[in-house]
Amino acid sequence: MSEIGWYKSLIRLVKIRAYSSNIEANPSFQLLKRSLEIVAQERGGTLINHVADSLGRKTACDLAVTTADFSRGVGIKIDKNTGEVTFLYDQYGGYEQTARKITEEITQNYVAIALIRAMKSMGYTVKEEASKQRETVVLVGRV
C-alpha cells in the first residue's frame, strides 16, 4: 500500500527556538538546505516543499528534493521544539533503496559541510575536491 513514511534522522538542528519565527534563517537549516541542493544538482533534481505518494497525493514538508530517478521526492520535516529532523518518502513500488540512498547522501553532505565549517572556524584551511563517484576528499592543514 502506498503511503508516506516517516524515517528518523540523526540530524538535529541547533538553536531551533531562537529561530522559531523564521527557521530558514537558522544556520543549521541553511546547511541542511545546501545538502539537498547538492543532491539535486548531482542527481538532476529540484528543491520543492512537498513529497508525493505513488497515487500523487502531496504531503507538505519543510524541504524536499525530487530527482530524475525518484520524482516522488524525499522530504524533511523539522520539529520546531527539538530541532529533530525526519525524512519523509513513499517507498512503495520498489523505491526503498533509491529513497534510502538519497537520505544517506543528504546526511553525508550535511555532516561534511558542518565539519568543513567547523574546521574553518578553528583556523584550518580546508580544500574540497568532489569527484563523480560521490567521494569528497578533504585536505586539512593548519593556517
Number of domains: 1
Q: Tell how many strands the DSSP assignment holds.
A: 7
Q: How far from one another are the termini?
A: 55 Å
Strand content: 35-45%
What's the SSE pattern?
EHEEEEHEE
Gyration radius, to the nearest Å? 16 Å
Order of strands, widest sheet: 1-5-4-3-2
Low-confidence stretches: none
Q: What is the overall silhouette?
A: globular
Helix content: 25-40%
The count of helical stretches stands at 2
Offer a quick outline of the entry.
This protein has 2 helices and 7 strands. By secondary structure, it is of the alpha+beta class.
Structure description:
With 143 residues, the chain is of the alpha+beta class. The protein has one domain. Helix content is 30%, strand content 38%. The strands form two sheets. Strands 1-5-4-3-2 form a five-stranded antiparallel β-sheet. Strands 6-7 form a two-stranded antiparallel sheet. Helix 1 crosses helix 2.
What are the main properties of this structure?
about 140 residues, alpha+beta, 5-stranded antiparallel β-sheet, two-stranded antiparallel ribbon, 7 strands
Secondary structure elements and pairings:
Elements: E1 5-12, H1 27-43, E2 46-52, E3 58-67, E4 70-78, E5 84-89, H2 96-121, E6 124-130, E7 136-142
Antiparallel strand pairs: 1-5, 2-3, 3-4, 4-5, 6-7
Helix pairs in contact: 1-2
